[in-house]
Amino acid sequence: MSNNSSVAVGSFQQQISFRLLLIQILVVIFLCINMLLIVTFFKKECFHTSARYILFAVMLMSDSFVLILSNVLVILSILQFTIQVWLCTVISIVTLLYVMATPVTLTAMTLERYVAICLPLRHAELCSTRRSIHCILVIHSISSVPSMLNLSIFFATASLGLYETRALCSVEMFILQPWQRHFRSAISQLYFFIMCIIIVFCYVQIVKVAKAASGDNKQSTQRGMRTVILHTFQLLLCLILLWSPFTEAAALKVDVNLFLNIRYFNYIVFSLAPRCLSPLIYGLRDEMFFLALKNYICFCFCKRFTV
Q1: Which residue from 5, 98, 121, 227 has the highest number of Cβ atoms inside 10 Å of its Cβ?
Q2: Cβ of 62: how many Cβ atoms within 10 Å?
């Protein structure tokens, strides 16, 4: 009996180690790609005056922050390493802010495509560099509201002594009452409902323009349509992530191993996957950005071999 139990424990630890290693490999790959695209953005000055590329760079940085912070939380959770609650609060505030910043930025980028295709004469005015900076401030302000509301409730209900205690850092730690979970879910789903309406509206308007366009304009409009469709898919993955706590809670009541498997699957598919779609949508599909990226990579290789 003891031999069977030791074999089972060893197999479980081996499985956990493999999953942790796979997560680290994926995170490192996505971070390297994001950093390469961010450096390409800063190297090319023409990108600094375009709203679509500015918002793209903002989303890349948001995704990178989420990848780093969520990976730290995953490692702490797997290693069962506890930290003080006040430190966990700081990490959670930043994580929740940038988790929400990605879909909000996606919505802003979809609106920029709508203006470029449906209102081309006003695009230079509405999507200027100055307005893009204001848009970034609005994105972060809107993205901070859900986390501020949820954490304000936690600050109001938690005792002062709780902040000095040590615990496993998790977003679920800030839910002290069952109604707080429903409140958090309601706010998040309200956000995504509004964002879905905006994206559907933009897509319908772009389709109308595509039917009336011809030649090069038609090709440009169709590319815009495909971009909006990819944004919708990416937003859908982010939306499903909000439902993950409910499926994980139901699985935990059935079996612990089922809970761990579903949680691992949710993290890979609904947390990591949306962050790898950003480089695909704008970094590789966009001809201008892809050309700048290729030139930068070739320049780095040539410089390395000539030194």
Answers
A1: 98
A2: 25
**Residue 5, domain member (yes or no):** no
* Paired residues of 167 in beta bridges: 83
Write the DSSP symbol of residue 285. S
Q: Say how many domains are in the chain.
A: 1
pTM of the model: 0.83
CB 232, CB 199: distance < 8 Å: yes
CB atoms within 10 A of CB 87: 12
CB contact at 8 A, 78 and 20 = yes
Q: Which of 143, 168, 57, 165 is nearest to 93 (CA)?
A: 143
Q: What is the mean pLDDT of each run of 10 residues along the chain (307 residues)?
A: 53 74 86 86 83 87 87 82 83 84 86 85 84 90 86 77 77 73 80 85 81 66 72 75 72 74 80 74 73 76 61
In a domain, 6, yes or no: no
Residues 6+ apart with CB under 8 A from 259: 248, 251, 252
- Say which residue the tokens 């780093």 belong to: 68
Say which CATH number the domain at 160 has.
Answer: 1.20.1070.10
**C-alpha to C-alpha distances, 199 to 51, 60, 78, 268, nearest whole angstrom:** 18, 20, 37, 25
Asked whether the CA dihedral 104, 71, 69, 84 is positive or negative, the reply is positive
Q: Which of 260, 219, 231 is nearest to 117 (CA)?
A: 219
Place of tokens 């609904």: 270
